Amino acid sequence: MSKIKGKVFKYGDDINTDVIFPGKYTYTVSDPEEIAKHAMEDLDPEFSDKVEKGDVVVGGKNFGCGSSREQAASCLKYAGVGAIIAKSFSRLYFRNCLNFGLPPITSEEAVDAVESGDEIEIDLTNGIITTSKGEFTIPPLPESAQGIIEAGGLIPYTRKRLGIE
Asked: How deeply is 17 buried, as exposed, middle or buried, from its count of CB atoms within 10 A (0-12, 13-18, 19+)?
């Protein structure tokens, strides 16, 4: 999965885990399809009906702040989101994204350049984000993070490394 291509869903600063995945479902919903249905429910009620495989969520500063609930990352992955681009991420949210194989990308320039509905392509291998407003270079993720994303998350990555496929 070195290239991700889709449309942009853009939101602002301080998008917290409660609006990404409402806390009221934390202990009552466990099926991936059901988790996906509640993605961004409190921020963008139509998100789960509109999002398509490969689409990209774009946020401002401090994306994923709030609680450490992993469903706030997994719901976007299960909904088909190909990556998240933000000006900055909560440290725990960044790690939860990696754990689920959802690329968290930091790029202030790309965030400022795009709007909801724009087409976007991300080349993770070469570190390039392409939009109608130009190309933006991103630093490559560390090799271990790239391996986790390519494997589809930390658990598949670990199983593969241990030969437990």
From this structure: buried
Looking at the whole model, is its pTM more than 0.90?
Answer: yes
For residue 35 the two structure tokens come to: 């988790």
Q: What is the DSSP letter of 24?
A: G
Query: From CA 115, how far away is CA 133, in angstroms rounded?
Result: 10
Domain ranges for the chain: 3-162
Model confidence pLDDT, tens digit, residues 16-25: 999 999 999 9
Q: Is 94 left (phi over 0), alpha (psi -120 to 50) or beta?
A: alpha
Q: For 127, left (φ over 0), alpha (ψ -120 to 50), or beta?
A: left
Question: Under CATH, domain 3-162 is a member of which superfamily?
Answer: Aconitase, domain 4 (3.20.19.10)
pLDDT in tens, 51-66: 999 999 999 999 999 9
